[in-house]
Amino acid sequence: MKNKKILIVEDEPIIAMEMQESLQSVGYIVPEIVRNADDVLPSVMKHSPHLVIMDIYLKSFIDGIDAAQRIKVLKDTPIIFLTAYPNEVIRKKAMCVKPEAYLLKPIQDEELQRHIERVMKKYA
Known about the structure:
The protein is α/β, with parallel strands linked by helices. Helix content is 44%, strand content 16%. The protein contains five helices and five strands, in the order βαβαβαβαβα. Strands 2-1-3-4-5 form a five-stranded parallel sheet, with helices on both faces. The longest helix is centred in the C-terminal third of the chain and has 14 residues, at 109-122.
């Protein structure tokens, strides 16, 4: 399962770095941290990640849900959404993308890793 590439899309630098360190400490490869939705597609094309962890609210013209929809058009890359805002309307919109998980921040490393391992087994 390890040595799989996970792309992190998160505009909060501290959260992104903590997530990167946590994932790398258990053997995942984080080739890049993407800070806005506009840079997601080029990064997905460049790195071909096995999984994308996507924040929904990003400081860019489009949000994480729109970026995830664009990814799904190009590749069937699994996506785990993260959000700090428990909004039912947003959750329903996100579910249309068919993410592997929709998780609320703050999330514990162990919980995130359980979801990642489940996704990696599913797509192995």
